[in-house]
Give the backbone structure.
Amino acid sequence: MRFRHPDGSTVHLAYCTNVHPAETLDGVLAQLRDHCEPVRKRLGRDRLGIGLWLARDAAHALVTDPAALRGLRTELDRRGLEVVTLNGFPYEGFGAEEVKYRVYKPDWADPERLEHTTSLARLLAGLLPDDVTDGTISTLPLAWRTAYDDTRADKARAALVTLAERLDALQELTGRSIRIGLEPEPGCVVETTHDALAPLTAIAHDRIGVCVDTCHLATSFEDPHTALDALTDARVPVVKSQLSAALHAEHPADPAVREALAAFAEPRFLHQTRTTTPDGGLHGTDDLDEALADGGPLADTAPWRAHFHVPLHAAPAAPLTSTLPVLEAALTRLVGGPHPLTRHLEVETYTWQALPPELRPRARAQLTDGIAAELTLARDLLTDLGLKELP
């Protein structure tokens, strides 16, 4: 979906396909047929943006076979779909029964991460619509925090510098500008936007910036305006933003609240949980079940937030809620000013099948309806900010 900002620039809205498990190129093509095109039709639109997730095997098949890449581009066009952004965070196995810590491997100290991201950039340059010259890719925020020492930090920095040089060369070759955004996430080396400032200002290259995920922003209790102002002041570009909402519990000491939270503790993904401390700091656990354990480490005198991407249009039932207001505040700062801070927005609710059983879509059509409803909400927020939806 495309929107005209009051300054005349185009803002793109997509939804991320990591909600549909697929490791191979055939799986990706099936996604387009079974999910993405039906969402477009459900919205009644001739064109729909998707934030494509290409796992290692799918990316390898495309980068080694130009005919396969042309075929994917043809299939996108045929189904009324367009790609201006990729999700390069998960490497493989994102649809596995247990993902947890595996999603952080390989990290930016491992050569595989550089090579995979380079492949994604080359592929995106070939997938961009004919009238679009700028593409973006979100990626791992350096590494999970454990086992990350100075040696690995040096390797990660060198890899990102090399990537920036490759992206410069790619633009000279293709005329397409591809930028990469580290996506701050709780528990990682770069947990917050503040954590991103030092490594990115050290690299100081406008092709390497931040992807602001509004669920992660909220889980870490960051104020959107403060966070985005700091990035702007440091001249760190907001490459893209993922529109998502976290799980919020206002009164975690209440037994009914804890019971409701327990329904969201599940074995597939990590649900890092955070609360604020009296001195304004953060205290957290790597997963929701750790926070809920008897005698758990989190104080229950202040609200809790959990890294669980809940559907944007459907907040959990009381006594829980979502951090949609954080998303709204961030979006106001991102695109509500005289010039947008980013032009690539991506709805990323990948946890539909991890929701409590009674909230999960039971048929493909229900998932289609849910994704369409999220995009409709995002569209309405954008038009309320003065953007005009384009055909």
